[in-house]
Automatic annotation (TrEMBL):
Residues 30-264 form the Xylose isomerase-like TIM barrel domain. The lineage of its organism: Bacteria, Pseudomonadati, Bacteroidota, Cytophagia, Cytophagales. This is D-psicose/D-tagatose/L-ribulose 3-epimerase.
Length: 288
């Protein structure tokens, strides 16, 4: 039986809000009480000071942090426009500054290309090269901040450049920087991968972040994600990074509308409480 080392467990605040503020303090305090090791928050365009203040609050609670971000069409690392790629690098550096101010260790998300923008053709080799060039430069900037960048493969309805772990592995290898790794998201893999164990083993050499997300984005363990395959294979590869729940609601309607979330899946506290118990149960199952 493979042994799953102890991985920290996080919760993404997007279940309540994209912007961070003092309104999130009671939520993070309750997440701490549940037993979470850290929180994940969305990086937007708020001033760096807002992230520093939020980081101070998390440190007082002894909570660690990670971040997630997306890129707009005007900040597309895969673009054939040098100006747009330069803007992409600027955006990534600004995100790194904000994450560093908060004390975060990881920035994840589909920042290899613009979110929900499609070229109407299969991804081209030069697009991977352009994206990798930007990611390498961003990785060099992230090195001084002691932050790991973990680009994410999304499903075909949200992204065309990276849908699978094999595509993501190719991109990360082209980026060729120790601070540019990869993440695995169970929700997207449910649509794009043939078998979870094969996908996880494929990305294992560069895997540094995992999103625990149910097929409907509700409470982990309530749907049909192959969780035993997931946790068993993570144990086999000795994964020790974050296991962070990413689930969505309509609490932040502007954010929900932007990602096509049109109904409630579960109450956010049901997701947080039962999801935490589920992850701990699965970790214990594969720690025997």
């Amino acid at each position: 039986m493979p042994t799953l080392p102890s991985s920290p467990v996080g919760f993404n605040l997007l279940a309540w809000s994209a912007p961070i503020s003092e309104k999130m303090h009671p939520i993070t305090e309750r997440l701490k009480t549940i037993g979470y090791d850290g929180i994940e928050c969305f990086i937007d365009y708020q001033d760096v000071a807002a992230y520093r203040q939020f980081g101070d609050h998390l440190r007082q609670l002894n909570l660690q942090s990670t971040c997630v971000m997306v890129m707009s069409p005007d900040e597309n690392p895969a673009s054939d426009s040098r100006q747009i790629r330069d803007q992409a690098l600027t955006r990534l550096k600004e995100a790194i500054d904000r994450a560093q101010a908060m004390g975060a260790s990881v920035i994840c998300g589909p920042f290899h290309s613009a979110f929900a923008m499609f070229s109407r053709q299969e991804p081209q080799p030069d697009e991977y090269e352009r994206s990798a060039e930007v990611l390498h430069a961003a990785g060099e900037y992230a090195r001084q901040a002691n932050i790991v960048l973990t680009p994410e493969a999304l499903n075909r309805f949200e992204c065309y450049l990276c849908n699978t772990m094999s595509q993501l592995l190719e991109l990360v290898r082209r980026a060729d920087h120790p601070n540019v790794r990869a993440m695995f998201d169970t929700h997207h893999a449910n649509m794009e991968e043939k078998r979870f164990p094969d996908a996880i083993r494929t990305i294992a050499p560069v895997l540094a972040h995992v999103h625990i997300s149910e097929n409907d984005r509700g409470t982990p363990g309530d749907g049909h994600i192959p969780w035993d395959d997931t946790f068993r294979t993570l144990a086999e590869i000795n994964y020790t990074g974050w296991m962070t729940i990413e689930a969505f609601t309509r609490n932040d309607t502007a954010f929900a509308n932007s990602i096509n979330v049109w109904r409630e899946y579960n109450d956010p506290w049901d997701i947080a409480e039962n999801g935490f118990t589920f992850i701990k149960t699965m970790q214990a199952k594969y720690a025997k």
